[in-house]
Design brief:
This protein is α/β, with parallel strands linked by helices. Helix content is about 30%, strand content about 10%. The protein has five helices and three strands, in the order E-H-H-H-H-E-H-E. The chain has a three-stranded parallel sheet with strand order 1-3-2, sandwiched between helices. Strand 2 (about 100-105), helix 5 (about 130-150) and strand 3 form a beta-alpha-beta unit.
Protein backbone atom coordinates (compact mmCIF):
# COMPACT_ATOMS: atom_id res chain seq x y z
CA UNK A 1 0.00 0.00 0.00
CA UNK A 2 1.09 3.53 -0.73
CA UNK A 3 -0.08 6.43 1.41
CA UNK A 4 -0.35 10.13 0.72
CA UNK A 5 1.24 11.14 4.01
CA UNK A 6 1.00 13.91 4.80
CA UNK A 7 -2.15 14.54 2.79
CA UNK A 8 -1.12 18.15 2.19
CA UNK A 9 2.34 19.67 2.43
CA UNK A 10 3.40 20.79 5.88
CA UNK A 11 3.36 24.53 6.42
CA UNK A 12 6.71 25.07 8.06
CA UNK A 13 6.79 28.17 10.27
CA UNK A 14 10.32 27.56 11.61
CA UNK A 15 9.37 28.71 15.09
CA UNK A 16 12.61 27.58 16.67
CA UNK A 17 10.76 26.82 19.89
CA UNK A 18 11.84 23.94 22.06
CA UNK A 19 9.37 21.11 22.46
CA UNK A 20 9.32 18.59 25.30
CA UNK A 21 6.82 15.75 25.29
CA UNK A 22 6.46 13.94 28.61
CA UNK A 23 4.58 10.67 28.23
CA UNK A 24 3.57 8.15 30.86
CA UNK A 25 2.86 4.76 29.32
CA UNK A 26 -0.76 3.68 29.95
CA UNK A 27 -1.48 6.52 32.38
CA UNK A 28 -5.09 7.56 32.90
CA UNK A 29 -5.53 11.27 32.38
CA UNK A 30 -8.16 11.39 35.13
CA UNK A 31 -5.43 10.75 37.72
CA UNK A 32 -3.56 13.92 36.77
CA UNK A 33 -4.91 16.08 39.56
CA UNK A 34 -3.77 17.73 42.77
CA UNK A 35 -4.47 14.60 44.84
CA UNK A 36 -3.01 11.74 42.78
CA UNK A 37 -0.07 13.54 41.19
CA UNK A 38 0.41 16.93 42.85
CA UNK A 39 3.87 17.69 41.42
CA UNK A 40 2.86 16.92 37.86
CA UNK A 41 -0.35 18.87 38.36
CA UNK A 42 1.60 21.94 39.53
CA UNK A 43 4.01 21.58 36.60
CA UNK A 44 1.06 21.42 34.21
CA UNK A 45 -0.09 24.85 35.35
CA UNK A 46 3.13 26.32 33.89
CA UNK A 47 3.02 24.26 30.69
CA UNK A 48 0.97 23.91 27.55
CA UNK A 49 -1.71 21.29 27.96
CA UNK A 50 -3.60 19.89 25.02
CA UNK A 51 -7.01 18.88 26.28
CA UNK A 52 -9.03 18.84 23.07
CA UNK A 53 -7.68 15.82 21.27
CA UNK A 54 -8.61 12.26 20.51
CA UNK A 55 -6.52 9.42 21.82
CA UNK A 56 -5.59 6.72 19.36
CA UNK A 57 -5.26 4.23 22.19
CA UNK A 58 -3.93 3.80 25.69
CA UNK A 59 -1.80 0.91 24.41
CA UNK A 60 1.89 1.62 23.94
CA UNK A 61 2.22 0.84 20.23
CA UNK A 62 -0.94 2.44 18.91
CA UNK A 63 -0.97 5.26 21.47
CA UNK A 64 2.53 6.49 20.60
CA UNK A 65 1.86 5.95 16.89
CA UNK A 66 -1.30 8.04 16.89
CA UNK A 67 0.31 10.75 19.04
CA UNK A 68 3.07 11.37 16.49
CA UNK A 69 1.23 10.66 13.23
CA UNK A 70 -2.25 11.93 14.04
CA UNK A 71 -3.62 8.70 12.56
CA UNK A 72 -5.39 5.70 14.05
CA UNK A 73 -3.23 2.74 15.03
CA UNK A 74 -4.63 0.57 12.23
CA UNK A 75 -2.00 2.15 9.97
CA UNK A 76 0.82 1.02 12.25
CA UNK A 77 1.90 -2.07 10.32
CA UNK A 78 2.05 -0.40 6.91
CA UNK A 79 3.94 2.65 8.19
CA UNK A 80 6.34 0.44 10.13
CA UNK A 81 7.05 -1.85 7.16
CA UNK A 82 7.75 1.18 4.98
CA UNK A 83 9.70 3.06 7.70
CA UNK A 84 7.64 6.19 7.14
CA UNK A 85 8.70 8.75 9.77
CA UNK A 86 6.26 11.24 11.27
CA UNK A 87 6.19 14.51 9.32
CA UNK A 88 7.02 16.30 12.59
CA UNK A 89 10.48 14.68 12.72
CA UNK A 90 11.18 15.39 9.05
CA UNK A 91 10.40 19.07 9.68
CA UNK A 92 12.55 19.13 12.79
CA UNK A 93 15.48 17.64 10.91
CA UNK A 94 15.00 20.21 8.15
CA UNK A 95 15.03 23.01 10.76
CA UNK A 96 18.13 21.85 12.64
CA UNK A 97 16.47 20.56 15.79
CA UNK A 98 18.47 18.50 18.23
CA UNK A 99 16.15 15.52 18.78
CA UNK A 100 16.69 13.48 21.92
CA UNK A 101 14.70 10.50 23.12
CA UNK A 102 14.71 9.48 26.77
CA UNK A 103 12.86 6.14 26.97
CA UNK A 104 12.53 4.30 30.24
CA UNK A 105 11.54 1.03 28.56
CA UNK A 106 13.06 -0.12 25.31
CA UNK A 107 11.33 1.12 22.20
CA UNK A 108 12.42 -2.02 20.35
CA UNK A 109 9.38 -4.01 21.51
CA UNK A 110 6.94 -2.87 20.32
CA UNK A 111 9.23 -1.77 17.48
CA UNK A 112 8.79 1.98 17.75
CA UNK A 113 12.36 2.20 16.43
CA UNK A 114 11.16 0.87 13.06
CA UNK A 115 8.30 3.31 12.68
CA UNK A 116 7.74 6.35 14.88
CA UNK A 117 11.41 6.80 15.77
CA UNK A 118 12.93 5.30 12.62
CA UNK A 119 15.04 8.45 12.17
CA UNK A 120 16.62 7.89 15.62
CA UNK A 121 17.12 4.12 16.07
CA UNK A 122 20.27 4.60 18.16
CA UNK A 123 18.22 6.37 20.86
CA UNK A 124 15.60 3.66 21.34
CA UNK A 125 17.22 1.53 24.04
CA UNK A 126 15.97 1.50 27.60
CA UNK A 127 17.39 3.59 30.42
CA UNK A 128 19.65 1.83 32.93
CA UNK A 129 18.00 0.28 35.97
CA UNK A 130 16.69 -3.07 37.14
CA UNK A 131 13.12 -1.89 37.75
CA UNK A 132 10.80 0.45 35.87
CA UNK A 133 10.83 3.04 38.66
CA UNK A 134 14.65 3.07 38.64
CA UNK A 135 14.69 3.53 34.87
CA UNK A 136 12.15 6.37 35.23
CA UNK A 137 14.40 8.14 37.74
CA UNK A 138 17.33 7.70 35.35
CA UNK A 139 15.29 9.16 32.48
CA UNK A 140 14.59 12.30 34.50
CA UNK A 141 18.24 12.60 35.53
CA UNK A 142 19.50 12.04 31.98
CA UNK A 143 17.16 14.71 30.66
CA UNK A 144 18.25 17.24 33.28
CA UNK A 145 21.89 16.42 32.51
CA UNK A 146 21.18 16.99 28.81
CA UNK A 147 19.56 20.37 29.54
CA UNK A 148 22.41 21.46 31.77
CA UNK A 149 24.96 20.32 29.19
CA UNK A 150 23.44 22.43 26.42
CA UNK A 151 25.00 25.55 27.90
CA UNK A 152 24.74 28.35 25.39
CA UNK A 153 23.57 26.08 22.56
CA UNK A 154 20.94 28.10 20.74
CA UNK A 155 19.76 25.30 18.43
CA UNK A 156 16.16 24.37 19.13
CA UNK A 157 15.54 20.95 20.61
CA UNK A 158 12.85 18.31 20.87
CA UNK A 159 12.88 15.84 23.73
CA UNK A 160 10.60 12.87 24.30
CA UNK A 161 10.59 11.57 27.88
CA UNK A 162 8.84 8.23 28.07
CA UNK A 163 8.15 6.94 31.57
CA UNK A 164 7.16 3.31 32.11
CA UNK A 165 6.59 2.53 35.78
CA UNK A 166 2.85 3.23 35.64
CA UNK A 167 2.51 0.58 32.95
Amino acid sequence: KTYAYPKTPLVNTQSGKNLIVIAFDAWRASTMDSLCSPNIYEFSKRSSRFLRHYSGSNGTRTGVFSMFYGLPGVYWRDFCEQSIPPVLFSAMKENGYDVRLFPSASMLNPPLDKCVFSMFPDQCGSAPGLNAWQRDVNVAQAFLQYLNGRGGDSAPFFSFLFFDSLH
